[in-house]
Amino acid sequence: MRNLVDLLRRRHSLEGLSDEIRAHLDEKVDALIASGMSRADALREARRAFGHVGRIEEAGRDVWRMPAFDDALADVAFGFRFLRRSPTFAAVAVLSLAIGIGANTAVFTVIDALLLRRLPVLDPSALVVFTRHAADTGEPSTLTFHEYDELRSRTSSFAGMLAYSGGDGSLQPGATPVTGAGEPIHGGRVSSNFFDVLGVRMAVGRAFTPVNDVKADPERSVVLSYAYWQRRFGGDSSIVGKPVIVFRGMPFIVVGVAARGFTGIEPDHDTDAWWPVANVKSMAPERLAGWNVTVLARLKHGVDVPHARAEATLVHARIAADEAIARTDWTDVRRRRFLAEKFTVGPGASGIADATRARFSQPLYVLMASVLAVLLIASANVGALLLARTTARRRELAVRLALGSGRPRIVRQLITENVLLAAIATAAGLALVPFALRILLSYAPADVAAGLHTAPDLRTLVFIVSIAFASAVIIGVLPALRSTMALERELTAGGHGVGAPQHRARAYRILIATQVALCMSLLVVAGLFVRTLHNLRGLDAGFDRKSLVLVTVNNGAVTAPVARQILPALEAIRGVRSGTFYANLGLLGGGTSTSDCIVDGTSPTPSDEVSCVIMQVGPRFFETTSTRIVAGRPFAPGDEPPGASVAIINETMARQYFGAEHPLGRRISGAEVVGVVRDTKYTSLRDPAQRMIYRPVGPGWAVADVRFALHTERSVAGIGAPIRQAIADAGVTKKATAIESIAEISDATLARERLLAEVATSFGLLALLLACIGLYGTMSFAVARRTNEIALRMAIGASRATIVGQLMRESGTTVVLGAGAGLIGTFALSRLLSRLLFGLEPSDPATIGAAVLLLAAAAAAAAYLPARRASGANPVAALRAE
Amino acid sequence: MPTSEPRDLFPGALEIMVLRLLQREPLHGYALVQRIQQASNDLLHVEEGSLYPALQRLLKAKLVSAEWGVSSTNRRVRIYQITRAGTKHLVTEVSRFEQMLNGVSLVLALGGGDA
Fold this sequence. Notes:
Helix content of chain A: 40-55%
Distance between the termini of chain A: 53 Å
Strand content of chain A: 15-25%
Order of helices and strands of chain B: HEHHEEH
Number of strands of chain A: 27
Structural class of chain B: alpha+beta
Strand order of the largest sheet of chain B: 1-3-2
Distance between the termini of chain B: 20 Å
Structural class of chain A: alpha+beta
Number of helices of chain A: 28
Number of strands of chain B: 3
Largest interface: A-B, 29 and 22 residues
Radius of gyration of chain B: 17 Å
Oligomer: heterodimer
Shape of chain B: globular
Largest sheet of chain B: 3 strands, antiparallel
């Protein structure tokens, strides 16, 4: 602050110093002339008496000097001039660093939003989350409300425990239900103590009254999020206490609005409203007991996680044992599988987003590593180019050193230039972040992309500052120290400017080899992901993946008669060859439904695996989806229960259950097998072959969402309007909530693979480009420095090919070493990678071969051009220039 | 060592003289030089230019202030004025200067035991 005031005063005081001096000289001359001197003599005498005007002015300025500040300003100005003098270098350096910094910031922002950010609740670090894991696959799943209730009453380590179940639904603002007026929201069904356990305050009104969620008949109440309240009710606090929300056809009283900034406990979704878990029309106590909920608990003050974990695990084991005994309808296998499940107590500070985290956390870490590698390459690259430039500026620097500029002063000058470069690049990189974020989030499901909070927080800022600082150190500080140290040594040793000291050449080699190594790893990883995506896209899913349009319909539950009423209307649309329907399970969407399947007349031993995936389908299912019938027949009219009990099984089930025997005519759980169809992928293209059984939809069938599958060559865009019209005309109060082609759906299931393949490829190629620029730049420089040597050797008869060959061999060694190190690095990562790959190993020879060839070709080109140019030099001219 | 030549000033002497002169009346640069030479009977050699850095030092230390005005020869000049801080500073500097002179005189009065 004082500096600033001084700066202003200095300006004011120094302004006019020259005028003042001129006035002084004029007065003196006048006085001397008046005393009888000639004008010329007077001028000379006045100047003599005054002293050197320039020096005096300088002395006046010196009075105000703020050394550190002025030097820094001069350095920055010098730095700008230096960058302006070499615009191509500046552009390449700034752009490559900016891309690196921008990409790093974007990836880190997503990691922060999805994995690291803490919930805006009271002391989030005291929260833990309970999860159940399948014994074999480790697949996480939630607990039941019954388990929650038991855990809550039988443990003592926790100050509070809440149950939560989030999901999409529809709400209607207003006091009376209006058909079709609902709007989609993300809601949370919660235990009534939800806000108390989290310590979230209300902006208006009150939280739910804590009650016994199982026994009490809860009030029909809802708490709105602050954002929803603002959006739908304009922040009107008079709505509190009034029944102004219609949910499932019933009015709900808005009891409160949660504190601003609390958007729920799912980082990947903003929650609009919460209501008590028991508060659903059909929620009978038995149904509530089996309800799947996420359980979050707050540790009692002074209780540590291991202690709490031990207690909760023990209590849960007892609850599970009781449950296993109580469920007399279970097979032994099911019981054993249930008891083998692992109960875990994990940190709950950053909320719950199991599905999104399971899908994207590993890819995000892989991406983070890739973009860090790219930034490292870019920094090393700019560092190498700067080192080359510094060496080219040796004459200037040597003169300044010799003239007595201290080495610290020169080092500071060089560092300022490089820090300036890093600062400009950081600013440019941050400008790129919104675009990079948009690209990244386009791979996530739309609701997740919208739900993640990507506004920078303190952690992001710390990250940005750290990477900017690190890249500044790499590009600037080390080269600056190195080159001036070398210069000083040369000066003191009386060295001559020919030939670079050995250690500096080594610095280049290390920089280049590092770049090549990172580049090699990135290329191999990118290749692996591209081939994984290719494998999955080309995979035979067992059904037709081209001419199928899936229409999801709901607006309340859908029953079999309603589905049968809609289907003919859809099939009548021009271009639709056939249509069918099924519950929103399978055909690459929704969840799975499994059941125990036992062949009649056999009694499986307790160790037999008898669970199978079950799919209830409408008419012409196999015809519409082009699923091939391997044996027997498809379902026919008259197959529906209760009149008949038939089933169609897939090949895997036929093979595992009947082996070489003929399955047709056999009965499974009472249903006669009438056909065998090809294996199909169910919820994901990565699904392993699993036992599947198909049953015709019966009269009692009712589902929350129904999906119609239409076999048509028409595009979604073209057929969308007719489909909506057909459903409206069918005379039911249902609506199409989604119309998607099977290609879109299967591509959506490949989001993770596309993210990895496309982003990793982009960065792999960018890395290659940067490494080539680096190689080209340093090679050009090295060659230029050795012009004399080359000219001399050519003058004594070395052929051009020999020279080029030798120069290329020198950089070739560096490239080969770097590439080797890169391959070793990739192998080290292979365990992390193999889980993300499909249909190939991390050591896939074709991928590695292709990457090596690509790198070798690019590196050879980058090294060949300067080598060739150098060998084309005229020896006489080159030698004369010295 | 020749003794007849005008002596260089010791550091800070010029500033004290400027302050003393300004205490009597506000002056501009050229006038200040004139006064110094008149007052010292031309015994002191002041490079005229060196007055200006001294004035900048005084400005920076806020011991004087300056305003643009017009000289007797009708030129646009900066007229300097002593500030309250400047007056205070002058008092302490003068007493320090006198102390120093006393000290020097005492040492010189030891006389020439030339040994």
